[in-house]
Specification:
The protein has about 70 residues and is an all-alpha fold. About 80% of the residues lie in helices and about 0% in strands.
Length: about 70
Amino acid sequence: MDQPAAIQQIRDACRDIARLTMKIHPAVPHLAHEETQADVLRALHQLTVELEVVKKKIGRLEREDSSTLL
C-alpha cells in the first residue's frame, strides 16, 4: 500500500467512525441514568477530539508531501 492509499483508508475510517458516533448521541438520553449519560457524552467528546487529531495529522502529512513536489 502506498502513502496516498493509506491516507485515503484512514480518512474513510475516520468518516465511518464519526458517522457511527453520531448514531450513539441521540440514544444517550434514553439511558435515563444521569451518571452514565454524563460519562458516555464525555467519552463521545473525547473520541471526537482524538479523531480530529488523527485527521489533522493526516492532512499535515499530505500537505507536506504535496509541497515537496513543487
